[in-house]
């Protein structure tokens, strides 16, 4: 086993069936990361392993179906910020919201469920999106990691250009070293990859 330092954690973002091909919010080749994540978890190289899980009520504000006359992927303003409207996905308790069944999740130490507030979207593992009070409420993950001495996080999962990217950006903003495991991520659409690379480069 090639164990990593104990101050390094793995964050697996939204590896759920609804983001796989055939799901309502399919990422480009999303299922291609499943074997690699399974192999990585089998190594038990990380002392701390966290998964996030999109976990929405059916009346969630980010669903286009809840906005009359709006189609999925339309852009609106929500709480003063740009908001993409998504197809209905990862409804709490549905099979599509489960952690992917082809992965052995026994290495997990923590599951962070996000997006449960019907009025606020939630991309990052660390903070929800902007809410009605103009703030981004924390999920509690940063404190959990700090209590365990974690200073660096490796992030993979779905989608590369949304929730994975936001998680890396927030990790850096909160003082963690952070890197994206690029090959173990996939975007909603590959056309976004150039912008994602630029955003990562801007982190230094």
How do you describe this structure in short?
20% of the residues lie in helices and 21% in strands. By secondary structure, the protein is of the alpha/beta class.
Task: Name a few traits of the molecule.
single chain, alpha/beta, two-stranded antiparallel sheet, 7 strands, 204 residues, 21% strand
Strand and helix layout:
Layout: E1 8-13, H1 34-42, E2 48-54, E3 75-78, E4 81-84, E5 110-114, H2 141-147, E6 152-158, H3 160-173, E7 177-186, H4 193-202
Parallel strand pairs: 1-2, 1-6, 2-5, 6-7
Antiparallel strand pairs: 3-4
Helix pairs in contact: 3-4
Widest sheet: strand order?
5-2-1-6-7
- From the spread of the alpha carbons, the general shape counts as globular
Rg (CA only): 16 Å
Based on secondary structure, the structural category is alpha/beta
Helix content: 10-25%
pLDDT below 50 for ≥5 consecutive residues: which ranges?
Answer: none
User: What is the β-strand count?
Assistant: 7
Q: What is the rounded distance between the termini? A: 31 Å
Which series of helices and strands comes N to C? EHEEEEHEHEH
Strand content: 15-25%
Major beta-sheet overview? 5 strands, parallel
Helices, by number, come to 4
The mean pLDDT is: 96
Give a structural overview.
- With 204 residues, the chain is of the alpha/beta class.
- The protein is 20% helix and 21% strand.
- The chain contains four helices and seven strands.
- It has helices spanning 34-42, 141-147, 160-173, 193-202, and strands at 8-13, 48-54, 75-78, 81-84, 110-114, 152-158, 177-186.
- It has a five-stranded parallel sheet with strand order 5-2-1-6-7. The protein has a two-stranded antiparallel ribbon with strand order 3-4.
- β6, α3 and β7 form a beta-alpha-beta unit.
- α3 (160-173) packs parallel to α4 (193-202).
- The protein is globular, with a radius of gyration of 16 Å.
- The two termini are 31 Å apart.
